[in-house]
Amino acid sequence: MTRTWVRELTGWMLAAAVALTTAAIVASSPRAELLFRDGDSLVVALLSRSILSGEPLDWAMSSVLFLPETAVFSVLRVLLPLGVDGLFAVSAVIGILALYGAIRLVAGRARDDRAPVGWSVGAISVFGLLAMTEASASRDALELASLQLTTTYYSATVVAVVLSIGLVRRVLDGSSQPVGLVVALGAVAALSTLTNPLYAAWFAAPFVIVSVAFLIRRAHRVPVLGLLSATLTGVGLGLLLRIPFGSWIANTGAGYAQPTLWRESVDYYAHLTAERLQAPLGVVALFIVIALLILGVVRSIRADGPGPRFVAAASWTFPLAVTLGAIALGTHAARYLEPIAFLPMLALVASPRPLRLPLVARRRVAAGAAALMLVGGAVSAPHLATAASGSSADPDLACVTDWIDAAGRTGAGQFWTARLPKLHLEDPARLVQVDHRLNGYAWLVNRADFRVGEVTFLVQDSQSAPWELPVSAVPDEIVDCGRWSILDFASTPLPLGTAHS
Fold first, then answer.
1. What pLDDT, in 10s, does the model give residues 283-292?
2. Is the CB of residue 293 less than 8 Å from the CB of residue 126?
3. pTM of the predicted model, to two decimals?
């Protein structure tokens, strides 16, 4: 028992080192734009602040509610004396650690002929390596592993999918408490679908497809049917639980499905792939993923039991099903293909046998790898802290927020322009999110902001569309804040138009 706890604790320590190293390297690249400053990436921080402030809540969300992500971020905000960028950095590390925990569940129980902890650490290390190869500032790039470090791009759903695969594996392995695991799977399905219906496309639908192969054998029918029932019941319950949040859901996501555009979808994803392969690190990442997919196919054929066979099959069939489904629905968003980045790793833990080396050699290899990981994590921590201080050292951002805080008045800005200053204001409601015609833009924001009725200044930058103001007005002053400009209309208040999403 003591050895088991020591192994598990060591695994978590090494996973933490991998998480620190991964987060530091990604945060030190142009990808930091996605971690700390992207307009979409800030929604969880804004929602968390809104909830903790006790202000009226009338949020306009997408089809994703970000409930687990917001809960974790809120707890961190209460417990840690950090600025918002520091909280983003800690959240990035937690996102990798949570994924490790789910992978460890998938790896199965420790036995004399298994090394699940070591292979789980190996899997999260490979995932971290993939994330480290990603350096684009674009949210639309086919750089999917690093999205797990953000609070916005479905990190909780990624963990839930892997966790679900782990629960299925434990049941198929012959757990002594199958009923509890089946109930747990239903609960994960319900909560995950509640916060993000994409769970149904990433896990439930592929699980139904893969289960057909297991239902052929009579010995597997009862557990598989029970797992399927729990999954589908949980998904259905999750959809019902979304009804009370209906007023918050500004877009159900149904409009994203456009099957007639499947050819355009093929072209879109092919273009993203070609762009990714223009960089040497993109080629390396592609080879890693292909090697893992091949390993998954081989292990699904040679598996020594239903549990390992299911995990191995899921490592390549689930990403394939998700990709084909995304194309069939005519989607145009790289983030929908995230399973390509995290599910192939499961091939490493499908049958986690010890390396075929003498015991002394295995221990030396393990000790050397562990030492490298721990040193990397220790060295990376200060670099991550430095990367997370970027906004506090941004003079342009400070210029905008200081001016607005000192003015004590309410202004407006367009989505991509206003999100970052809004997050860093003493009172985020002082900067209302609008379109170029000054209509309220109710998207990933608290609609209570629009009750102010009028604004007295506008914030703009290179991403802002030309203004079409509802009244004829000339700014009293234009304040230069580097990449932002503030148009001050103190003498001519501008009325807000009707809000829309």
1. 999 999 999 9
2. no
3. 0.94
